[in-house]
Design brief:
single chain, alpha/beta, Rossmann fold, six-stranded parallel beta sheet, three-stranded antiparallel beta sheet, 17 helices, 11 strands
């Protein structure tokens, strides 16, 4: 394989659940030697999260964990023990980046905060990802994705104007924080290579999510009013077809006329009650009924390509199974099979971007403590007897 973008970069991964592991996953997939450090016996909390094959929980077969920890090497280490903390310091001497997403008080409590680690390795880049950042009155607050969405202000604008706000599904704020963590880690690494000086990077999931959609606060700053929820109404609508859903966006007269052509009903253009955007909005239910009746025996791809010919803004809305069959994904070989000893061969989402000269790579997540011998004996020089003793003492 060609040299990858981050080949030669050593990352110590103290992360768990989603935000931190996603940050280090990106680094590992582009060539960094990421050493994932987990608690003995229990490991990352994500190992307890599904989905699981046959719905049978097992710490080695969590779909969430296997996706978020591809291409990493895994060791176990109890940082709460004095020997464990010292071993981590020994590893940090030769590392380039440390990533952690504990609560802000944890690393200082372990004696492994930035002030300590920089005396061991002044070139070390330390990335701390937390809910609200390392400072401020919220710094020690616990939070879920819903808390972050709500406090960011984005949630206030989602949903119908006469109903309560609605949150987007999944854990978007955590993935956003992880993505920012990767970006700033590499920026700090570039600065380190230019100056010889490492630094501590503070990533707030709350602030990271807000910067992805700051329009509501920009509107208030510039115009002085609080924008209301707009809801999902015609001319925008998600409507059912034979094998899924189609999303329409028809804000202009030209696009309304194109819809009439698509439906094979040019006579709709001449109806006085449909003449203007306002009148069409007043008759939204009956227009929607016409569209739904036309769609009932049409497939998503059929409608999608017919709309393309008319230059209409329209999208298919595939479900999880249909996503695998989209011709664009197949042409770019986006989904890739990865073998893991606990679950066998399964398809995984592939590269988010493809550098021509320094490619992405596919590789599985580690078993719990799989690389203890490689790291402790091969990297730090411990003997097999010392390794057994550390295990008996609960250090690894």
């Amino acid at each position: 394989m060609s040299v990858q973008a981050l080949s030669g970069c050593c990352v110590l991964d103290l992360t768990h659940h989603i935000a931190g592991p996603y940050c280090t996953k990106i680094m590992a997939d582009y060539g960094a030697d990421v050493i994932k450090i987990e608690m003995p016996e229990v490991g990352d909390a994500a190992r307890g999260a599904g989905p699981f094959p046959d719905d049978r929980p097992d710490i080695e077969s969590s779909g969430l964990f296997l996706y978020l920890n591809t291409n990493k090497r895994g060791i176990t280490l109890n940082l709460k023990s004095a020997k464990g903390a010292q071993i981590f310091k020994d590893l940090a001497k030769e590392a380039d980046i440390v990533v952690e997403n504990f609560s802000p008080s944890v690393m200082p409590g372990l004696g492994l905060d930035h002030e300590v680690l920089k005396t061991i390795n002044p070139r070390l880049v330390i990335v701390s990802i937390s809910n609200f950042g390392q400072t401020g009155p919220y710094r020690d607050f616990q939070a879920t994705d819903l808390n972050i969405w709500g406090l960011s202000g984005i949630l206030y604008e989602c949903g119908d104007p006469d109903r309560e706000p609605l949150k987007m599904g999944s854990n978007v704020s955590e993935y956003v924080a992880g993505l920012y963590g990767t970006f700033v880690a590499l920026s700090a690494l570039y600065y380190r290579d230019e100056t010889g000086v490492g630094q501590h990077v503070d990533v707030s999931a709350w602030e990271a999510l807000h910067t992805m959609q700051p329009s509501m606060t920009l509107v208030f700053s510039y115009a002085g009013f609080v924008r209301r929820r707009a809801g999902i109404h015609f001319p925008w609508g998600i409507l059912p077809c034979k094998d899924g859903y189609i999303g329409f966006f028809l804000p202009t007269q030209v696009q309304w006329e194109s819809l009439c052509v698509l439906l094979g009903m040019p006579e709709l253009r001449d109806k006085p009650e449909y003449e203007t955007p306002l009148s069409r909005e007043e008759h939204r239910d009956e227009i929607t009924e016409i569209i739904v009746d036309w769609l009932k025996d049409k497939g998503m791809e059929e409608v999608f390509h017919a709309a393309q010919e008319l230059r209409m803004p329209l999208t298919v809305v595939p479900n999880a199974q249909q996503i695998f069959d989209l011709p664009q994904h197949k042409a770019r070989e986006y989904f890739i099979d990865i073998y893991h000893p606990a679950v066998g061969k399964l398809p995984y989402p592939g590269a988010p971007f493809q550098p021509a000269a320094t490619p992405w790579r596919a590789g599985r997540a580690p078993l719990l403590g799989e690389h203890n011998e490689d790291i402790y004996c091969g990297r730090l020089g411990y003997s097999e007897e010392q390794l057994r003793e550390l295990k008996e003492e609960g250090v690894i």
